[in-house]
């Protein structure tokens, strides 16, 4: 099932993205991974109430595009998940 995203705000240095129908677990992992990027100043999940859709807020420095930073962080998370899956499959074979 595909995530449904809504871009709430976009400037050269800031993006606010709403993750419709999603919980906070993935966003927390994405925000943590974003903070590994030296071009990212702030990456945090905001959620007004527990039952509302979470929002990711990203601000960047040094000319880094906030959307590029999110894309790169999501790719890294996907890569980590792929590595974990391969290792788990190897454990099953052994």
From TrEMBL:
A GO CC term attached to the entry: cytoplasm
Which of UniProt's keywords are assigned here? Cytoplasm, DNA-directed RNA polymerase, Nucleotidyltransferase, Transcription, Transferase
UniProt GO molecular function: DNA-directed RNA polymerase activity; protein dimerization activity
**Record-annotated DNA-directed RNA polymerase RBP11-like dimerisation domain positions:** 15-86
Q: Where in the cell is it found?
A: Cytoplasm
Broad class of where this protein is predominantly found: cytoplasm
Query: Which EC number(s) does UniProt give?
Result: 2.7.7.6
**Catalytic activity from the UniProt record:** RNA(n) + a ribonucleoside 5'-triphosphate = RNA(n+1) + diphosphate
Query: A single GO BP annotation from the record?
Result: DNA-templated transcription
Which family is it part of?
A: Belongs to the archaeal Rpo11/eukaryotic RPB11/RPC19 RNA polymerase subunit family.
Q: Which NCBIfam families match?
A: PRK01146.2-3
The protein's assembly and partners: Part of the RNA polymerase complex.
Q: What does this protein do?
A: DNA-dependent RNA polymerase (RNAP) catalyzes the transcription of DNA into RNA using the four ribonucleoside triphosphates as substrates.
Name assigned to this protein: DNA-directed RNA polymerase subunit Rpo11
Question: Which species does this protein come from?
Answer: Methanoculleus receptaculi
């Amino acid at each position: 099932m595909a995530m449904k995203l809504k871009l709430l705000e976009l400037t050269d240095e800031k993006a606010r993205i709403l993750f419709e129908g999603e919980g906070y677990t993935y966003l927390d992992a994405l925000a943590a991974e974003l903070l590994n990027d030296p071009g990212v100043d702030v990456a945090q999940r905001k959620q007004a109430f527990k039952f509302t859709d979470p929002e990711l807020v990203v601000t960047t420095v040094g000319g880094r595009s906030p959307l590029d930073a999110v894309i790169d962080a999501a790719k890294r998370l996907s890569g980590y998940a792929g590595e974990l899956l391969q290792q788990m499959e190897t454990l099953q074979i052994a």
